[in-house]
Amino acid sequence: MDKRSLLYAAVVGLVLLDVAIGVYAVYNAPFPLKVTLGSPTAYLNIYLHIPMAWASYVLYTGAFISAIIYLVRGGERWDRLVEGFVALGTIYAVFTLISGMAWASESWGAAWSWDPRETGVLLLLLAYLVYFVLRASIPDPDRAATLSAAYAVAAYSMVPVSFLAPRLVSSSLHPTMASFGHFMGRPDVLRIFVPKVILATVVALLLAYLASERLAGRSAPRWARWAGIGIIALGMVIGLVVASPYFGGGVERVLAANLTKNGEIASLVLSGRGKVVLPHPVPSPVQPPSYNGTPSIIGHLVKLVDGRIEVVRHWSVALNAAAYPVIVGMVLLYLSKPPRRRMEEE
Amino acid sequence: MASGRRGSGKKALIFAAVFFVALLGIGLMSIKSSNYKDVSELKAYREPVRGLNVQGTTVNLPPGTYRLAIGSTVLEFRVGPTEAPYAVAKRVQGPPLGSDDEYAVFILRGKDGTEVLALFSAKTFKNLYGATPVMEQRVVVNGEFNPKQHAVLYIDTPEGPKKLGSFPVFWVDKILEGCHQSYEAPSGRIA
């Protein structure tokens, strides 16, 4: 196997590991026991949305550094890297916005609220979209590369703006690092969240590098196409499995619950059918069963199946768990297309 | 293929640095202007306006029986045994106000002390938040503000109803909850 094939194999392996951790997080990771709005399971998006957001920041930072090096030292390699980083950064930023909106629709009451960070990421995305327009509009390749690299440096100003946005205003729906750190500092959260962030970032960087290689006319191995198709299919299966409780209906929100003395659920008040007394008390599927005297099951989306209570993950978790492998698979599929050779200067 | 001639590259870098600062300034101004309106800024409106995002602090209502008059419609609610930031009011007299006969009622106060009375359909409120949700002290709401519509609030006393005040009405479509409190809860798992 040559070096390029090894690199693609490493990417595919890391993507599969990343997806596996994502699925593990969806089914086993902790989430805040009591939330102010919506289903607590929507907070499982912590393990899906945030790693992609961080990866997009890292990618744009890569573009920023590569652009400066290109402007100072020249070299076609650095120009290709700028383009690769910006392209992948843009893809990841789009995913960040969409995954965030899906999560916000449940946990914030609205998919879009002009929250400062939401606004900041949107500005960031729009700024970098201009990079492609600028690049494509200049016929002279040298001039195009120089001006677009200069623009990539300038557009990076939107990264600190979007990152610091919650601190710049008096009210933001995004938490500050201080309040966020309280939950994220827990060992049972960190042991899933940290590997997820690292893997997502490494995969993003490798894909950006491979994209820059493709711009140089170096093609992917033929099997990469099938790997891409396989990863897309995997993503779709994951989405269908996580969303499967919604098929057939019967998903309702728990408005109130009565617990027995030993923490078992005796009855529920559901958003659809009202009060439901269970044939016999069942252990709470959410552990611990109560918090400050309030049953933990309240606010959750559930389905009653044969007297059992099945907690249903919010649909945004299914969407985001599926979208990541689908997007990465599509990138691999694109990278495996035979590249058009650019004109090379001798 | 682009080679990047060094002379023009350094000039472009200087241009990029200047443009960076300019974009940074524009970005910061955009973020600052995306800050939610405070309740105190609602004074500027003379006509009803929809789709507003407004932030304010909730005012705790002392225990008691209250009546709320909006036009010819009267709603009644109770607070107790301790003070609370909101209550669910039921229509007891007059025509319906909207799609619901029960509303979550809370008073929002702005930075300068301006107060509005917020009404949120109880059906939607309970569906989203559960039967007895905890409301944060600081909330951001989305909805319609009608400066021409006022709600008069009374509390029952042994001497009879006592007028507490007249408040412009804010019809809440959504409560845009910040998730800060969520992260302070302990962690849970699905067994």
| Strand-residue proportion of chain B | over 45%
* Number of alpha- plus pi-helical segments of chain A: 10
**How much of the polypeptide of chain A forms β-strand, as a percent range?**
5-15%
Mean pLDDT of chain B: 86
The most extensive interface, with participating residues per chain, is:
A-B, 95 and 61 residues
Write the H/E string of chain B, N to C. Answer: HEEEEEEEHEEHE
Radius of gyration of chain A: 23 Å
Strand count, sense and barrel status of the largest sheet of chain B are: 9 strands, mixed
Molecular structure report:
The complex is a heterodimer of chains A (346) and B (191). With 346 residues, chain A is an alpha+beta fold. Chain A has helices at 3-28, 46-73, 76-107, 116-137, 141-155, 158-168, 177-184, 187-215, 223-243, 315-335, and strands spanning 31-32, 252-259, 264-270, 274-283, 286-287, 290-291, 294-295, 301-305, 308-312. Chain A folds into two domains: 3-246 and 316-335, no CATH class; 252-313. The radius of gyration of chain A is 23 Å and the shape is elongated. Chain A has a five-stranded antiparallel β-sheet with strand order 4-3-2-8-9, with no helix packed on it. In chain A, strands 6-7 form a two-stranded antiparallel ribbon. The mean pLDDT of chain A is 91. Chain B has 191 residues and is of the alpha+beta class. Chain B has two domains: 1-35; 37-184, no CATH class. Chain B has helices at 6-33, 122-129, 180-184, and strands at residues 37-38, 49-58, 64-70, 73-79, 87-93, 102-109, 115-121, 138-157, 160-176, 187-190. In chain B, strands 1, 2, 3, 4, 5, 6, 7, 8 and 9 form a nine-stranded mixed β-sheet that branches. The mean pLDDT of chain B is 86. Classes of the chains: A alpha+beta (346), B alpha+beta (191). Chains A and B meet through strand 1, helix 2, helix 3, helix 4 and helix 5 of A and helix 1, helix 2, strand 8, strand 9 and helix 3 of B.
Attribute tags:
heterodimer; A: 346 residues; alpha+beta; 2 domains; five-stranded antiparallel beta sheet; two-stranded antiparallel ribbon; 10 helices; B: 191 residues; nine-stranded mixed beta sheet; 3 helices
